[in-house]
From TrEMBL:
Main location: membrane
Membrane topology: Multi-pass membrane protein
Annotated ranges, domain Cation efflux protein cytoplasmic: 207-285
Localization in the cell: Cell membrane
Domain of life: Bacteria
GO biological process: intracellular zinc ion homeostasis
Coiled coil ranges: none
Protein name in the entry: Protein p34
Keyword Transport included in the entry's annotation: yes
Naturally occurring in which organism (per UniProt): Xanthobacter tagetidis
Any one Gene Ontology cellular component term annotated for this protein: plasma membrane
Amino acid sequence: MKRSTLWVAVASVGVGVVVLGLKTLAYLVTGSVALLSDALESIINVAASLAALAALHISAQPADTNHPYGHHKAEYISAVVEGVLVVLAAFTILREAYHGFLDPRLPDQPVKGMLLNGAATALNAVWCMVLLRVGRANRSPALIADGKHILTDVVTSLGVLAGFILVPITGWPQLDPLLAALVALNVLWTGWGLMRESVGGLMDAAPPPDVVARIRELVSTHAEGAIEAHDLRTRHAGRMTFVEFHLVVPGSMSVAAAHDICDRIERALETDMDDTEITIHVEPEGEAKHRGVVVL
């Protein structure tokens, strides 16, 4: 794992604390239920950033006797935890929105509240782009999940700010808790998406079709001297991609020559795709299935 990835996770905790402080202050100034819902979600952001930091630290540990394939799935666990926290935040916001709807009131000092919340939203918008860019570049489910969560926070904060403008204009105080309820539903949907994607990683889901197609292409191009490759299986575990397949070679080929072909394929995959673990099972031509990857 690149050291920059870990530092980004550390910085994410700091950014989350600053945003939480700004949004909490905005709620205290205005008494708005919608701003309270925004602040509650930011508490989850800080907790999720801490979980992502812990997961990245664990996943960076080298393979050991008890974990011969490494600790990469720790990032998926972090993303699942974050999804659960997001769902809990959504139900908490719905509860506050319900009580606010029963006893509605116009917010105090709306301009000051909008300025504080707007500053927090701008900071979140910049930071979520950083997290998504670094997470995708390093194939880090933990950072990507954190970035998506913060992006949701940005969208909901913009909705809250828009509603803040409408509340004093319309003079309808029920609009404030109604906005909070809409925030909660959006957060709930995001939490479900995070958990669904993370569970796929824990269940050894295959990489996207374009990645699988690229693997097949590289095997086909660099397996000169072999007959075919079949039973190709791939899976993702955090930033790692695991590839395994059977390589059929002529029965008269020496072990050394077959080994050279395997080395050539492995070098091609490792050069084209970072963090790849490859297992190749060599078989004689009598095991050919005449399907799978055709050697060019």
